[in-house]
Request: fold
Amino acid sequence: MTAKLDYRWHLREVMATRGMFSTTDLRPLLAGRGIDLSPSQTYRLVVERPERLSIKTLMALLDILGCTMDELIEPVAAGGGQRRHNSAGGSPSEAHGGLGDLRPKRAASCRSRSACPIPPPSLRASSRSRSP
Reply:
């Protein structure tokens, strides 16, 4: 059986060790190496764990920070509670043990009109008209 791998993204920590504490510090350095990212893209690159990353961007980050790939990306075994939570305490689905807990419950259907606690709209309108 093949072990599933995941990774930890350490860009923010590596930047901090190099004296870079703001995402705005990184953007012009990337632009100087031909990587033109918007301010929001640069922020997400630093703050969040990227799912996709171009090799050119990765190589520019390694060059800017003077680090190795091992310092920036740490391979870890998938699962096993090794998730990192953001400063807001993680996503709501992680906090509730998965997406299944957050899904809405299906409404109970009424097979017969007499068993339904709420009358259908057609009956509701007629009952209003009968009231004095």
Q: What stands out?
A: Helices lie at 11-17, 23-31, 39-47, 55-65, 69-72, 92-95, 121-130.
